[in-house]
Task: inverse folding
């Protein structure tokens, strides 16, 4: 939210995001794994990462993701197991990639493209960690499948994140002017994350 | 989806396809030069296992099957059945085999000759 909002509100929203992320993390661990493609997951917790990145500065995103992985693993009973290391690697990879996308694209890539990149980076980082843990370069054969699988899941996660952002956080901290429009020469503001733009008052 | 999103999707698809191609190429090269092991099973029991590339040219193995003795011959990184007591001689008809995954099977004499890659890939439960 905006920097003028109170510290308490910011703390509340961040806590809410951590809680939602942890629950999604646990829920995801209960979903049946695809037998044909081990490691391919929906990445539900990435919704929270995406929303956090869109609303808060980078340091807050790292806090939310770190706490989410820790609490989620604690609740799912996988703390400090190989599964935990895989989630951590995936989370670090996806957050870094999404941050880079947001700052490099300067608004040309929307929330959908960003979360596709997040999903692909998540899968790639996880695969690298699996290769490290299993000491087996042969796992690299999964890379093309995981890359392609990241497209539909990233699209889904991006759509959901965009919906949440538009629906629940209409006042954005990252509103950017995109130019002047129409006869009124009004400054059109558009959120560069979810493409939301405030309703302009109609002229009589 | 914005044009930027479409670029993202296109780049990822290109990376995926090219990495698949590279892996296939590397895999073929690897398989061609990697060690190939011969596994000989009689009546479901593994009797012998050895490297195909180390075996000498023209070396012959006499394998005792259920019906009688079969004779295997090793060539230049390949192996074939030359004599078999079975009536149909399908195993002899198979000819030379040289790639991992190929096999010579003699049902009447219960002999299976399989070629496996000398390098093991472990796909295990870690990828949960």
Result:
């Amino acid at each position: 939210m905006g920097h003028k909002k109170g510290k308490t509100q910011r703390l509340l929203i961040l806590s809410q995001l951590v809680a939602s992320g942890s629950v999604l993390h646990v829920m995801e661990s209960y979903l049946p794994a695809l037998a044909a493609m081990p490691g391919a997951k929906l990445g539900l917790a990435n919704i929270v990462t995406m929303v956090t990145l869109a609303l808060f500065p980078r340091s807050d995103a790292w806090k939310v993701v770190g706490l989410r992985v820790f609490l989620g693993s604690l609740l799912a009973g996988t703390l400090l197991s190989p599964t935990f290391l895989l989630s951590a690697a995936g989370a670090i990879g996806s957050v870094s990639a999404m941050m880079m996308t947001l700052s490099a694209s300067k608004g040309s890539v929307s929330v959908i493209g960003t979360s596709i990149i997040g999903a692909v980076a998540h899968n790639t980082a996880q695969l690298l960690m699996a290769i490290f843990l299993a000491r087996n370069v042969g796992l690299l054969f999964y890379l093309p499948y995981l890359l392609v699988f990241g497209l539909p899941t990233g699209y889904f996660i991006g759509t959901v994140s965009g919906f949440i952002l538009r629906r629940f956080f209409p006042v954005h901290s990252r509103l950017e002017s995109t130019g002047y429009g129409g006869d009124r020469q009004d400054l059109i503001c558009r959120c560069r994350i979810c493409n939301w733009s405030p309703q302009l008052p109609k002229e009589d | 989806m914005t044009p930027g999103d479409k670029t993202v999707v296109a780049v990822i698809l290109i990376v995926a396809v090219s990495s698949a191609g590279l892996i296939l190429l590397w895999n073929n090269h690897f398989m061609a030069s990697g060690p190939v092991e011969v596994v000989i099973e009689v009546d479901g029991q593994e009797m012998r296992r050895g490297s195909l590339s180390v075996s000498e040219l023209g070396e012959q193995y006499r394998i005792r099957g259920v019906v009688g003795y079969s004779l295997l011959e090793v060539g230049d990184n390949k192996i074939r059945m030359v004599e078999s007591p079975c009536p149909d001689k399908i195993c002899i008809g198979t000819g030379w085999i040289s790639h991992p995954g190929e096999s010579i099977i003699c049902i009447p004499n219960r002999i299976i000759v399989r070629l496996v890659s000398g390098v093991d890939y472990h796909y295990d439960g870690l990828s949960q």
